Amino acid sequence: MKIAGIIVEYNPFHYGHLHHINETKRLTKCDILIAVMSGDFNQRGCISIIDKKTKVETALNNGIDLVIELPVQFVLSNAEIFALKAVEILNYFNVSEIVFGSESNDLKLLETLSNTTIDYSVVKEKMKTGISYASSVGEMLGDLKANDILGLNYLKAIKKINPNIKATTIKRNNNYHSLEIQDISSASAIRNAIKNNIPYEKTTPIRISKPQFNNKYFDLLTYKLNFETEKLSRFYLVDEGIENHLKKIINISTDYDDFIDKAINKRYSRSRIERILISILLEIEKNIDFNSYKIRILGFKNKASFLISKQTKIAYKFKDLKDELYLKSTKLYSYNLPLKDKQELLKNELIFPIIK
Q1: Nearest residue to 4 (alpha-carbon basis) of 38, 29, 22
Q2: Are 69 and 22 members of one domain?
Q3: How many domains does the chain have?
Q4: Which domain covers residue 181, as residue numbers?
Q5: Are residues 181 and 74 in the same domain?
Q6: Nearest of 104, 71, 53 to residue 322 by alpha carbon
Q7: Residue 278 sits in the same domain as residue 308
Q8: Which of 250, 266, 282 is the C-terminal boundary of a domain?
């Protein structure tokens, strides 16, 4: 039986994601397709625009056989850790092939570049000129785009964890940074359309009635940065005295978007700042053990049930997780929602996995 894996965020699920699933099945001819998915927050530090339960159901309804949650501490990490832990989880289930989207769709080039040693001192110098980390690395490796850079990290992770896993790329059908609504639009474009009341319905098979955005955290962050400043340096990703920079900026900002726009500078990109802010709100300690975690099953089809039976590292029920970050994440996700919606989200957190 052949098992293939993909790494996803579905923020939100759109027709490009459906193409990814269908192409993965066509190219790998797999019997089981596993998705490792971010939950309440994504790798750019954004809250998921739709709730976790909706994401899981959508994945299962559109061709995924097993959905696994990537722990939030890995989601908020840099691309290297994000990729390493996602591949680590897929390897646990004996996947023989991992398929990812790529702007270049040139696997040979990416494999060659994955052996390149990056001079991070040069990256830091580029960042001082206002170029983001991803763009700085991309320039050093031949002007690579975001998904190619993430793909490099998947390839490095595969070499480190299990070189026998085959990597396959598919061509991305949309511009990662474009905010234009098309038949196959980027998730960024769809989120932007929803935020600005622009029709988006042709881009996704789901309807988003209660979209979530980071702007709801402005008051909470104002409190945290002003009244808990001394303990902020204990938290994951909070380095170089950035908490003082953030405190200064939030007190001259009118709302969340204004705060982020003012906080961005040559040292700190938008995604880095937003990841740091979510880490602060979740109070993820710097000394967290990244090697001690349970693999959380969010949903599966009956044909994939054999993969999760009698596995000691797998958490089938919420009580098996023994990790307060999952509950903290859900509580933060539900922050500022009406009581009924908050209770519904907390209830959903306890009912996983969804079985189809």
Answers
A1: 29
A2: yes
A3: 2
A4: 3-211+288-355
A5: yes
A6: 71
A7: no
A8: 282
Q: For residue 43, which of 85, 79, 12 has the smallest C-alpha distance?
A: 79
Dmax (CA) of the chain: 59
* CATH assignment at residue 53: 3.40.50.620
User: Which two three-digit tokens encode residue 186?
Assistant: 């980027």
Residue type, 321: L
What CA–CA distance (Å, rounded) separates 327 from 38?
Answer: 15
Q: Give dist(CA 71, CA 125) in Å, integer.
A: 32
> Which segments of 117-210 does DSSP mark as H helices, in order?
120-127, 133-140, 146-161, 187-195
**Token digits for 340?**
């009924």
Task: Indicate whether 232 and 329 sit together in one domain.
Answer: no
| Selection from 185, 178, 209, 256 nearest residue 50 by Cα | 209
pTM, to two decimals = 0.93
Structure confidence by residue, pLDDT tens digits, 183-230 = 788 899 999 999 999 999 999 999 999 999 999 999 999 999 999 989
Burial code (b: 16+ CB inside 10 Å, e: under 16) for 317-345 equals: ebeebebebbebbbbbbbeeeeeeebeeb
